[in-house]
Amino acid sequence: MDLAIWPLAQQPWADVLDAVRHADDTGWQGAYVADHFMGDGSVFGAEDGPTHEATAAVAALGAATRNVRVGTLVLSATYRRAAVVANWASTVDHVTGGRLVLGLGAGWQANEHEQYGIPLPPPAERIRLLDETCAAIRGLLTQERTTFTGEHVVLHDARCEPKPVQRPLPLLIGAKGDRILRVVARHADIWNLWAMPDTLTTRRAELERHCERIGRDPATIRQSVQAMVLVTDDAREARAFEERMAPRAAVAGPVERFAELVQEWAAVGVDEV
Known about the structure:
By secondary structure, this protein is α/β, with parallel strands linked by helices. About 40% of the residues lie in helices and about 20% in strands. The protein contains nine helices and twelve strands. The strands form three sheets. Strands 1, 2, 3, 4, 5, 8, 9 and 10 form an eight-stranded parallel sheet that branches. A two-stranded antiparallel sheet has the order 6-7. The longest helix has 20 residues, at about 125-140. About 35% of the residues are buried.
């Protein structure tokens, strides 16, 4: 089981850096940064709190560490242009000596789209945009020149050099709903979602159905889950934390409770928490 840390980007930069360096020095496998420009009033902090930008933060963390994989959880296709992301990803993969995980998603947070004048299309259109973004990025990172004509993404004999150190550079897709799992089946090396062990089985079965339709072995997709974690011996504090985070996956309690949960995730096929 791989363990990764996911520090809140609204913390002071020194705290984020200290946490990730600690993970780097003590055997953790990864460090991720969420792609948001402001909080959502709940999990990702207060709307008016300062928020570090994800691509700059990941590049900086990659340069400041030696061992952990660094990645985005996840870049939003609604405001991250495919060709720009591909060039950024290849550069950071070189900066880190081949330790980048490129996480992509369909986007969802309404307040940042509204404040910045960025369209937030209906879910079906966002899923099509993500599908095209993944295909275009894969082409740019693996082919000498890429031509792609989609509804949202268009490339004309496009170059992206240098190619990343990793061949292929791992593509993580954050997804849960049935329609977006088709994108996971087509493009993902890693599938990430909010999920407790008892809710993961039905989602995996749906992904396996999508993989079967296109002839892909679902075992070629690594399983990653995320959860909010609070280590505490105070039962009342633990209960309040889990209630506040609902319906997102969350666990609170003594460190032994988290260790037990990691074993439960492993038993249902999870590769990374």
